[in-house]
Write a structure and sequence with these properties.
- The protein is of the alpha+beta class and 253 residues long.
- It has 2 domains: 134 residues, Fructose-1,6-Bisphosphatase, subunit A, domain 1 (Fructose-1,6-Bisphosphatase, Chain A, domain 1, 2-Layer Sandwich), CATH 3.30.540; 105 residues, D-Maltodextrin-Binding Protein, domain 2, CATH 3.40.190.80.
- Helix content is 30%, strand content 30%.
- β8 and β9 form a beta hairpin.
- α1 packs antiparallel against α2.
- The model has no long low-confidence stretch (mean pLDDT 95).
Length: 253
Amino acid sequence: MLEELSRITAEAGRIAHARFGTDFRRWEKVPGHPVCDVDLEVNAFLREQLTALEPEAGWLSEETLDASDRIERRRLWVVDPIDGTRDYLKGRSGWAVSVALVEDRVPVLGVLSAPVRGEHWTAERGKGACRNGKLLQVSGRTALAGARVPADHLSGADADLVAVAKPNSIALRIALVAAGEADLVATLRWGFEWDIAAAALIATEAGATVSGVLGQPLAFNTASGEAFGVLVTTPAIHAAAVDRLRGRAMAVV
């Protein structure tokens, strides 16, 4: 099934890429949450194709009204038609189509299509992760100091870390850890499963440690479709990252 999922996601990426930089309708669903008609076009394509691929799976997407019966299903498609919409709208490369298949609350297949970057990421549970067909492996970093973080800037409390280029897509930021091009990605807020499901599997299969920001296991196909924080690191620095972030996270919860 990964081969078919990869093909479908790549085609969704081509649809989005074809309209990238053109004139299309855009608006805000709620203040601070942009969307455009390309999101809806890609979402409709993916729903048709993925439902045909696995008809019994439920559906959870950023651009579809949530159906409560999904939590009763063993399998679930988790979709973000364009993760990193702000970069898409601004003509920047840091966006991707993100698709995962979750089974028994665990991602088992994940694909990211980032056509402007020339990147296609795939993973299957227990079988590794690839970018453009090349097997991925996290970096060997063992010290938190000096860890590379996709960030626009770092606060004084994190001055011992190193900022690297930050795509708007959280899925792509997580994938950078999988590729050994970053060492740590963390969020300190409530987010949605569709933002992280595919990338979490890609990072895990590349050898990263993936958890909630407090070190808690991530769960998918939850009733809310949300999770508090995500932390993706090289294995040796995960505990130190949890310790550093705990106080900040608890102040937000």
